[in-house]
Amino acid sequence: MALLALKEQLNVLLNSMFAEGLLDQQFQQLQMLQDGSSPGFVAEVITLFCEDSERILTELSKLLEQQVVDYQKVDAYVHQLKGSSASVGAQNVKLACAQFRQFYEENNKEGCIRALNVVKHEFYRVRNKFDNMFQLEQRIQAYDAKQQN
Description:
Structural class: mainly alpha
Number of strands: 0
Shape: elongated
Order of helices and strands: HHHHHH
Strand content: under 5%
């Protein structure tokens, strides 16, 4: 019964992530690539996405703190973050990156700072949900392992 409850919690979490716009169909495509031979595939890809995104967000913050902003570098980082967000299905992060673009194309530093804050907010929202998802998956795997012994 506990295993069913954990699986139901995981399904509710995932459904809420889709309903809130945090994830799109690309995440489902990613899940379909995971099979018995690579049970940790999705977790590994998401972990790499989160680590890379943290690095990019730090670099963007540093760039926007400069007296003279290198908007080409801002463009490159935002483009990279948008691409990695799209590849894992982090829809709201991807959309926030797309909105960021108008500000760096206008060389609007204040607009870029506001846009970066939106991107960070959306990233941390999805990352926290991913953390919850991983915790549930680990509990399910541990319970499965216990049942097989």
